[in-house]
Amino acid sequence: MKKKLGIAIIYGSTRKKRVGIRFVNFLYKQIIKQGHIPYIIDPLEKKLPLLDKRFDDFAMKNLPKNISYIQKILKKSDAFIIVSAEYNHMPPPALINLLNYYYKEYDRKPSTICTYSVGDFAGVRVQSPLRALLTQLGSPPIKSGMFQPKLIDNFDEKGVPKNPEDAKKKFLIFYKELVWYANAFKSYKKNL
Ligand SMILES: Cc1cc2nc3c(=O)[nH]c(=O)nc-3n(C[C@H](O)[C@H](O)[C@H](O)COP(=O)(O)O)c2cc1C
User: Fold this and answer.
1) Is 114 near ligand 1, meaning CB less than 6 Å away?
2) Are 11 and 41 in contact (CB under 8 A)?
């Protein structure tokens, strides 16, 4: 039997009445159902200051708790799912801030970008800037993702979709691809 993969879901919203957490909860439960290990990295729960030093620039004995916690999750993850809305056609600032703290933790691990909106456009305009950023971080973004318009109408607070069959189908399209890449990269690295 194949070893379980660790998959970090990195969420970008710190807004008080945020709704993207519904999408995060849906993805989290789907990964469990598929037999792998999900982690949620949430910048509201683990607040990070505006970046003044990257993780590697800290003296290890002075490492703030949240910065260290997130590093450990990223390090043990084999793949990343970025969950982002559009704020004025760009990714939320907390997401960019968080991603930039780390570097080698992403290296040679695949990523996918899942976007959402409350309106009609599913946040897809953040694909391009996030793809450029993830590429530079060493985490190649795969071609597929899940793009959810009208999030509030389609998922409840716990992340239960209104149309479970349809949501699962959309999830599996990118998820299978992400797992394929994560396993391929992992086995290649093992045999180097
Ligand atoms: C600062 C700001 C800018 C926004 N800009 C866009 C936008 O460019 N395109 C869009 O479709 N929705 C935009 N929205 C609406 C978001 O899709 C909606 O607020 C969504 O709930 C944000 O995700 P969150 O609740 O997880 O923070 C914007 C919302 C905020 C707060």
Assistant:
1) no
2) yes
User: Which residue CA neighbors atom 3 of ligand 1 most closely?
Assistant: 87
| Cα separation, 132 vs 158, whole angstroms | 31
Residue 119, phi then psi, degrees to nearest 5: -95, -155
Fold of 6-190: Rossmann fold (3.40.50)
With a cut of 70, say whether residue 152 has pLDDT above it: yes
- What confidence score (pLDDT) does residue 1 get? 60
In this structure, what DSSP letter does residue 11 have?
Answer: E
Q: Tell me: the pLDDT tens digits for 22-31?
A: 999 999 999 9
pLDDT, one tens digit per residue, over 118-145 is 999 999 999 999 999 999 999 999 999 9
pTM of the model: 0.97
Q: Report whether 112 contacts 145 (CB < 8 A).
A: yes
Question: Is the beta carbon of 18 within 6 A of some atom in ligand 1?
Answer: yes
Cβ atoms within 10 Å, residue 132: 11
Question: 86 near 119, Cβ under 8 Å?
Answer: no
Whole-number Å distance between alpha carbons of 182 and 7: 9
For residue 85, the CA-to-ligand 1 centroid distance in Å is 6
Report the pLDDT value the prediction gives residue 157, as an integer from 0 to 100: 96
Domain spans, the chain: 6-190
